[in-house]
Amino acid sequence: MKLIIVTALLLVVALPEFKRASAQDLQRANEILTKFPVIDGHNDLPYQYRKIVRNQVEKLNIQASYPAIHTDIPRLRKGHVGGQFWAAYTSCNTQYKDSIRAAFQQVDVIHRFVNQYPNTFQFALTAADIESSLKNGKIASLIGLEGGHMIASSLAALRQLYDLGVRYMTVTHNCNTPWARACCDSSPWAYPGKGLNTFGEYVIREMNRLGMMVDISHVHTDTMKDVLKLTKAPVIFSHSSAEATCVHVRNVPDDVLKMLPQTDAVVMINFYNRFVNCSDFCDVNLVADNIDYIKNLIGVDYIGMGADYDGVSYVPTGLEDVSTYPTLFAELVRRGYTEEELGKIAQGNLLRVMKKVEKVKSELAYLPPYEEHLQPPLTDKPCRPNW
Asked: Which runs of E-coded beta strand occur in 126-249?
């Protein structure tokens, strides 16, 4: 009992007192989000389908409250979520094994649960599709592929996944691929280079040609810089935070943040406690501090929402699930953010990026598909032929 009391006292000391948004601030936030519903860049609900019911969508009813996870339809509605990139994710353990099979399974489960609730979800492929969905009062549903290991170093696989609806790919997850360095990989097969190699550059070029957004969450800072220098289209960080507020390899350092205006990129703020303030204990105010920091450094035009719900184990007090976006926006209202600024953070900045990615696709329509292959010795891995 003494240990519990001491621990509780330490937590009280460790967490500073914050000013709180008022009921009027919350009311104003709800009004703004009714006008500009949130389009979030990253939610791992598809992986929960895999873990809980082995992708048997009929066995998980998200139309009712399901408190064991962060996401269900009632809470999406309460949180004013108007668009969601659902993450097709599979572990790095599948690399050099069956990553493509796992990728197709996760893309498939997204299609199936979106189709299961046609009165709630509307599948979207373009910015115009999202805007149509919003007008219809539905939640635009898009697919992001979380990790370049899932294309097995194959541009053909990348193209087929695009045809199945994938509209961004995270260049790496937490493992290096044979063509790009991740934030935090020290595996025996670790990529020997610094950022992108030659084949990695072709992956980015093909994504630009296809009109697939390049996501540089999870990658090494050298990879971030290589992508930002190479890409012809704006990129995103689908679920990352600022390194200045928490020194972590998953966050974005200032020198990279300062490159974002040059390419019109967007960093979509992650709510995971250990990325927000490097602690298991966090408050909505600290997430707002992260947004403040980036706004003051490069401007509000490069910020979005990428909470990472259902993909993390700790979330801030006040941001417990997808119903709580209004709590964060109420805090931003309290801090003096205008309706225009909040509309940009909620959806406008991401829609701008998507439209520009689609414009670049149109400009590159004269190019044939890239046909490069990864070359030995990088292909000399178990369960893989030489090309």
From this structure: 139-145, 166-170, 213-215, 236-240
Candidates 70, 80, 149, 218; catalytic one: 218
DSSP-derived pairing of the beta strands 166-170 and 266-269? unpaired
Residue 2 domain-assigned? no
Given the residues 25, 42, 206, 358, the one annotated as active site: 42
- Which CATH number fits the domain that encloses residue 80? 3.20.20.140
Q: Which of 72, 215, 308, 341 is catalytic?
A: 308
C-beta of residue 307 within 8 angstroms of C-beta of residue 322: yes
Active-site residue, from 70, 80, 239, 283: 239
Token pair in block for residue 14: 């460790």
173 in active site: yes
Based on the residue annotation, tell me whether 248 is a catalytic residue of this protein: no
Residue 52 CB-density burial (10 A; 0-12 exposed, 13-18 middle, 19+ buried): middle
Residue 326 maps to a domain: no
Domain annotation covers residue 25: no
Q: 48-96: per-residue pLDDT in tens?
A: 999 999 999 999 999 999 999 999 999 999 999 999 999 999 999 999 8
DSSP 8-state code for residue 361: H
Amino acid at 264: D
- 218 among known catalytic residues: yes
Is residue 149 part of the annotated active site? The answer reads no
> Is 111 assigned a catalytic role?
no
Domain of 258?
A: 39-316+345-363
- How many domains, in total, are found in the chain? 1
Q: Is 220 a catalytic residue?
A: no
Residue 384 confidence (pLDDT) above 70: no
- Residue 383 within any structural domain of the chain: no
Q: Is 308 a catalytic residue?
A: yes
